[in-house]
Amino acid sequence: MKALYLPLLLLLPACIHAQQRPKNLLTIGAGIHALRIHDASRIGFHKSARLGYNFAKNRFLLAADLGYAYLSQKNKTAPGETNLPKPDTWERVTADISGQVNVMPSASRHFVRVGAGYSVWAISNNVSSEKYVIGSYFVPAGSGYTQSHLSAFRTGGNVSAEYGYKLQENFHLELRLRAVMLKDGGVNPTAGVGISYLL
Fold first, then answer.
1. How far from the centroid of its chain's Cα atoms is residue 67's Cα?
2. Residue 53: CB atoms within 10 Å
3. How is residue 168 annotated by DSSP?
């Protein structure tokens, strides 16, 4: 896990010795997110915003991403079932900090960033399960549904790779991949696009 933070360490000397004033970077992104639930993946929509700082002629980037993902799924029931359960829902509020290095020449209109960092996610799950009631003299047999709720914070490391193209000097279009390894939360990959503006 220590190797994930190497890009952050590499940023330190660049921040100290860079002659260029840092440029603020604002990015709006959207994509798909594989929610890891009970050893199974479910695909949801993920929205994010990023505030970043470029150093050393855009060679290094320190970024903070805040995102939101939500998925709702109806439960399957038998024909004629009247006791319908509520839809299952999975919600994520994501916060990711990362250091990235651009491996392409600074003068190129293309850039490829790779990096790693640390993530803190707030998760909320509401999942229904069927409960069977054994009949007795006073209670008839039947089935019903119970809903379990989980609300917790999960932390872990992240790795990322991004390809971008400079539409103009201050506008960039990006393709982004990220995988977040959460403790007690598995591997959570995200793929999407973003558009950045350098302030």
1. 7
2. 15
3. S
Q: Whats the size of the chain, residue-wise? A: 199
Class at the top of the CATH hierarchy for domain 2-72+89-121+151-198: mainly beta
pLDDT band at 36; cut points 50, 70, 90: low
Please state the domain extents for the chain. 2-72+89-121+151-198
For residue range 73-116, list pLDDT tens digits in order: 877 665 555 566 678 888 999 999 999 999 998 778 999 999 99
Of the candidates 162, 53, 158, which has an alpha carbon nearest to the alpha carbon of residue 102? 162
pTM for the whole thing?
A: 0.76
**Alpha carbon separation from 82 to 77, 89, 138, 145 (Å, rounded):** 9, 21, 22, 11
Question: Which helix (H) or strand (E) is 27 found in, with range?
Answer: strand 23-37
Q: Please provide residue 13's backbone torsions phi and psi, each rounded to the nearest 5 degrees.
A: -65, -30
Helix (H) or strand (E) holding 13: helix 6-17
